[in-house]
Amino acid sequence: MITARAAASFDPVGRSVATARSFVRDTLQGWGFADIVDDAVVLTSELVTNAVVHAGTSADVLCLRSDDGVRIEVADRYPEREIPLQGNALNMGNPDREGGRGLQLCAALADRWGVEYTPTNKQVWFQLGLPERAVGTRTAGPALPSHLLPLADGRVRVAVIQIDRTGAINAWNEDAEELFGYSAEQVIGKPLTDLAAWPHTPGTSTGIVEALQLSRWEGSYGLRGAHGRVTPVYASHLRVRDTGGEPSTVCLLVRDHERAVLQTPLRVSATDTTTSSEGHASDPFEVFIGSPAPDDLDGLLQRTVERARDMLDGDSAFLLLATDDETELEVRASTGLPSARQRFARVPVEAGTGRYGSARMPAVHEDLTAVPGAVPLLSGTGMRSVVTVPLKVEGRLTGSLGVAAESPSRYSNEEALRLQFAADRIALAVESARLGELERLRRGSLSFLVEASDLLAGTLDRDQTLALMAQMTVPTLATWCAVYTIADQASDPYLSYVLHEDEERIDGLKALLSKIAPPDPVPTPGARVWAAPAEAAHQAALRTSMRSLGLNEPATVSSGVGTTLATAGAVGGETVVLPLVARNRVIGMLTLGKPTDEHFRQEILELAEDLSRRAALALDNARLYSERTAISQSLQRSLLPPELPHIDGVEVEVIYRAAGEGNEVGGDFYDLFPIRDGAYGFAIGDVCGTGPEAAAVTGLARHALRLLAREGYDGPAVLDRLNSAILDEGARSRFLTLLYGELWPQEDGSALLKVVCAGHPLPLRLRQDGTVEPAAEPQPLLGVMDDLELYEQTVILDPGDVLLCVTDGVTERREGTRMLGDDGLADVLTTCTGLTAGAVAARIMRAVERFASDAPSDDMAILAMRVPGLQKD
After folding, report:
1. Does Iron-sulfur appear among the keywords (predicted)?
2. Positive or negative, the Cα torsion across 229, 231, 237, 243?
3. pLDDT over 70 at 565, yes or no
4. Is the pLDDT of residue 184 over 90?
5. CA nearest neighbour of 306 among 198, 180, 379, 403
6. SS3 string of 694-734?
7. pLDDT (average), residues 3-19
8. Structural domain ending residue among the three candidates 408, 439, 468
9. Is 209 helix (H, G, I), strand (E, B) or coil?
10. How does DSSP classify residue 762?
């Protein structure tokens, strides 16, 4: 019969194995099955490793409690990975090979085990029975000499506290009054959590609230007494029911150093071979850390500080690791201290006469109040005495381990030697785990930078580059990010982009940063701390709180209190600034921030520095591209007439489409301008190529046409002189196709045209009856030969006639092997009878665009002129 169950799923990543072990350990300890925890954890570890590492799938772990014991099931999503068949049931293979150890362990440790398959899952299960004990006996230890018995005070006081189902205290005995200074009347009815100074056992994820709901639990925490000091206690919780069936928890508490009175002894297997015949441990590392040792760095460091604190009967302990250059120590684990505030904080190794000036040697401080700041990590924590020892590997400083107490003169050289001995045992394991973590971080950093480089290289838009910079840093590297840009050396930094992992904090963060002076644009590489945001946030929160309490001017917006306090918490941690340097110039700053009392890891800062270099180059490339695009567009606009003149008696419409994204100056141009009273010149041309050289010829042609025509030259003379000017350009010259004409509206409603078509697509004339014919003959293009024999042709446009002039981007529009051509253009024009000049141009452009699905690859210009005729009254 199943009496309890617990289930969890774990992702296919390496850290899931450690998480699964913690899940099973916490579950079985909560059920009171401490005797079988070790075996269950070992088997679960192997089976989850098979699933998430070897099979590469997620793992589902199910713990079932019954009267017979505990059954644990581990399922993965890889049913094709079958159990290897063994010819001999006793031959389980080589235990040293990579796969199959989980099944060997199941056969060796479990009472029963098996494998079940479904179409989507493979499930391996094992069952562990509870050890048989004599009635009334839970555990027993051998008789020991008096000097080996644990120490206790003159009288061991056991506080008995009972907690009801709501978490409130409903019983408080005399020993509880003696230990904590509260009378029963003062605490009855109050939640136990109101007295808790340490909300959970250091190094575990089980809080007091959760512990009170478990059937059985043992651990340590701190209760704040009536005198205001914290009393570390060791507690044993037992969940019971009263005569009415109401559940409550009975808590037995002793002073933490008297934990042997209540603590359940660790189960030692009958086959344990860790001790020699002399009774000394063969592996001092396991004696200090315990077995099994955590396989992740954070777990190992947390276990280390907890054991160090217990070994020296301290109130707190901490462990710092050295950076690669050994110039700084970084806080990586602590117990009994505000770890959230201290984690990843850094202190220099050589800090003068203080503790860290001699970090390479053991040191004992009997009273920290006599040497303020000797151990910066303990400032403001109430710790008075401390012993610290170095962690060294092959003579190289790798870290520092310390234990502290609230009372002075607690430690001497003897404790320093004991702690140094333990530090020597664990230094190599810590360094090995640190190097493994560093290698994983570097592999992740390399992948991150490759992806970031690809994303940044994929855009040349400035705003999008700024957004990418921020989105790549938040929340991967920081909680919030701000990007300042500098337009030029004479400009001040400008707040260009702000991002926070909580979108509701962005506006408040932006408002806060807008009110403080930006960081100085220092080109020195590397991250530097910027304290201004945290200070400004603190002051703003203080002012808002005072207004809300009526201590200053009245608050105008009640919701502003929460917003300001939330903003202050969001930026109250460490803030660093990295310069954005591109082409030997500071173009901006990348600002990264943490929430209240958090610090950056050194590896994260190094990764952010690499990212800032790539981001700076991408941002500068986007700036250069924007400037080049703006110049090209401005130049393109200068090569076209700003507006077309109004011609009485003639409708004129022009459509111009430049190919590409505007980053190249096109070679097509058009113009329509008055020459003298009653006469107008028009032109449409195409210069070979694009870019500055083509633009130079385009500008030359347009301005030369206007100048020569207004000097009274006829069409052939204008083009002949333009041809000479183009040839004078030498290597920069480009050949030019040009249709040039002069237009005279007539009193009878018609229009007289004289045109010269120099190598350009022939103009087409649409008559009122729908016929289409060329309005000129082809002649040599310009920019190729010196002597040109050009002539002009006269065309009369009758009322209703249309003259259509286009560039070759229209006639050479392609779809595969098909091309629109002159005939296709003429076919489209035949459908334009009776349309205005604007409608004709629009229909031609629409037909050209629909001819092919791809975007046009060449510039296109369309000039349509129509003679509507005389208007009748």
Report:
1. no
2. negative
3. no
4. yes
5. 403
6. HHHHHHHHHHHHHHHHHCCCCHHHHHHHHHHHHHCCHHHCC
7. 82
8. 408
9. helix
10. P
**Are 791 and 735 found together in one domain?**
yes
Does one domain contain both 656 and 718? yes
| Domain shared by 235 and 108, yes or no | no
Q: What is the pLDDT of residues 54-104, one digit of tens each?
A: 778 888 999 998 878 899 999 987 765 544 444 444 444 444 444 455 677
End-to-end CA distance of the chain: 107
Q: Work out the average pLDDT over 15-20.
A: 81
CA 248 to chain centre: 45
Report if residue 208 sits inside a domain: yes
Banded pLDDT at 357 (limits 50, 70, 90): very low
pLDDT in tens, 454-503: 888 878 888 888 888 888 888 888 888 999 998 887 788 889 899 988 88
Clarify whether residues 231 and 324 are in a common domain: no
* Per-residue pLDDT at 870: 62
List Cβ<8 Å contacts ≥24 apart for 380-384: 381/316, 381/337, 381/338, 382/406, 383/315, 383/316, 384/408, 384/410
Query: Which secondary-structure segment (H or E) carries 843?
Result: helix 837-851
**Helices vs strands, H then E, count in the chain:** 20, 35
Q: What is the CATH number of the domain that holds 515?
A: 3.30.450.40
CATH of the domain at 28: 3.30.565.10
For residue 749, the domain's CATH number is 3.60.40.10
The answer to whether the beta carbons of residues 600 and 594 sit under 8 Å apart is yes
Same domain, 593 and 671: no
Q: What is the distance between the alpha carbons of residues 553 and 556, in angstroms, rounded to a whole number?
A: 9
In angstroms, the CA 349 to CA 352 distance is 9
3-state SS of 249-265 is EEEEEEEHHHHHHCCCC
Neighbours of 120 (CB within 10 A): 9
Q: State residue 88's pLDDT score.
A: 42
Strands 764-766, 802-806: pairing is: antiparallel
Is residue 271 scored above 70 in pLDDT? no
- What pLDDT digit, counting tens, does each position of 315-356 carry? 888 988 887 666 778 888 888 876 544 656 666 665 444 444
Q: How far apart are CA 456 and CA 445, in angstroms?
A: 16
* Per-residue pLDDT tens digits for 821-867: 999 999 999 999 999 999 999 999 999 999 988 888 788 899 999 99
Report yes or no: 319 and 400 within 8 Å, Cβ to Cβ: yes
* Mean of pLDDT values over 167-194: 91
Which residues neighbour 475 within 8 Å (Cβ) at sequence distance 6 or greater?
A: 501
Q: Is residue 686 domain-resident? A: yes
* Structural Rg of the chain based on CA atoms: 43
Instruction: Say if residue 623's pLDDT is above 70.
Output: yes
Tokens representing 524 are 């020195």
Give the pLDDT score at 556.
44
Count of domains forming the chain: 5
Domain-located, residue 449: no
Structural domain range at position 373: 287-408
What's the CA gap between 580 and 486, in Å, rounded? 10
Q: Compute the distance between CA of residue 491 and CA of residue 521 in angstroms, rounded to an integer.
A: 11
The residues, any chain, with a CB within 8 Å of residue 312's CB and separated by 6 or more, are: 387, 403, 411, 415, 418, 419
Name residue, tokens 């005399």.
174
Domain boundary among the residues 372, 391, 408 is at 408
Judge whether 9 lies within some domain.
yes
Distance CA 107, CA 451 (A): 46
Are 672 and 599 in a shared domain? no
- CATH code for position 152: 3.30.450.20
From residue 405, alpha-carbon distances to 315, 367, 516 in Å are 5, 10, 42
Residue 544 identity: T
Compute φ and ψ for 642, nearest 5 degrees: -65, -35
